[in-house]
Amino acid sequence: MSRAIDFEQMVSNAGDAIVVSDADGAIVVWNAAAERIFGFTPEEAIGRTLDLITPDRHRQRHWDGYHKTMRTGVTRYGAEVLRVPALHKDGRSLSIAFTVSMLFDADETVTGITAVIRDETERWAAERAMRRRIAELEA
Fold it and tell me: What is the pTM for the complete model shown?
């Protein structure tokens, strides 16, 4: 017996943030975990660009890569986990890890990209503190 998968429920209830943006970079899906991690409600995020969570100093590089990916339909990352800084609504910096997947229409035209995102801020801070401590002990 086969049961249909309720993808909307799957996205809504996922523990990791699921953010989908269209070919122009506008956010079209923003789940509850994205709200928990970044602080923006779906009403605040949907329709806005990814600049919402991208630090100023990384925006040009982000958009250069994003537009190239939308133009070519190819991402160099595939299943590779990316680790980058991000922004919370309150202005604090986050350290996130995510994977991406391309979205295509029936004609194989790129329609957007999905990012599955995890907040690694605490882990990154703990690793940085440990590296500092090791350096102190070795000095």
Answer: 0.83
